[in-house]
Automatic annotation (TrEMBL):
One of the essential components for the initiation of protein synthesis. Protects formylmethionyl-tRNA from spontaneous hydrolysis and promotes its binding to the 30S ribosomal subunits. Also involved in the hydrolysis of GTP during the formation of the 70S ribosomal complex. Residues 11-159 are annotated as: G-domain. This is Translation initiation factor IF-2. It is found in: Cytoplasm. Residues 8-177 form the Tr-type G domain. GTP binds at residues 17-24, 63-67, 117-120. The chain holds residues 201 to 490 of 708 of the full protein. Belongs to the TRAFAC class translation factor GTPase superfamily. Classic translation factor GTPase family. IF-2 subfamily.
Amino acid sequence: EPEDQLKLRPPIITIMGHVDHGKTTLLDRIRDSRITASEAGGITQHIGAYKIEHDGKPVTFLDTPGHAIFSAMRARGADITDIVVLVVAANDGLMPQTLEAIDHAKKANKTVIVAINKCDLESANPMHVKTQLAERGLQTTDFGGDVECLEISALKGTGVDDLLDLLALQAEVLELKANPKGHARASIIEAKYQQGRGAVASVIVESGTLKTGKPFICGPFAGKVKALINDRGETIKEATPGTPVEVIGFEELPRVGDSLVEMESDRDAKKLAAERQDELRAERLKVPQK
Ligand code: GTP
Ligand code: NA
Ligand code: MG
């Protein structure tokens, strides 16, 4: 991409950690913190991700904790996560799924920020967690390493602002940029059939600006953006890089991790879809070689 076309984009954050260590509580706490009094009680539509503004800087969170979505996306070559927040309960320490998450993040070469959670508990032992992390090759900064680590309570909200500060800062360090011009490309993060709306998918825009009315290809199917709905349930006209948005206008249900790519015309989209369907058919007909 020409350097001058690139603009800063929000970081995309995935939260991982062991069962019951507080991933959902943290995601809820962060999401609720940006809801203003006038919106209180108004339920935000769930679209699998949300974007907040922290000190004027946007940060996008995948709203599906756990490893499944991360793995499903990577299996399709979709690699949209920039930073992994590893949640570890301070009273429990590193557990099997914590180790699995560390493994996933390492393999994918992701920046990991550790949130030692439940620090409000009497039995919290953040020092022990840091020792365990160091034993796994994740030296936190106070242990002379370079892994950023915060002690938080997702339940009480303690340290959550510091975590957001750190995420915004890390995003700057990583210099996350994308070109908002040109044809849009987005990754499917969630897809479902809905009564009266057909196949609906949530995407995160990776580059370009996704606009209503534009034709696209997604897997072996053509489509056209009929409507875009943001994470507050509002209809919008366009979505820029790093923005999660719900897209209506799929011919068929896409798969998580599939790429939606804007096309020049309906004709181009249909032509490419036909080619991809032919390829799939040919593959299915292939007789295994002896
Ligand atoms: P799974 O989705 O089942 O893997 O769990 P999770 O990681 O999403 O944990 P969840 O947010 O559901 O929290 C599990 C339990 O821990 C709940 O009872 C929360 O209220 C509690 N919890 C979460 N964060 C904190 C915290 O900071 N302090 C305390 N004391 N409890 C917490
Ligand atoms: Na739980
Ligand atoms: Mg949960």
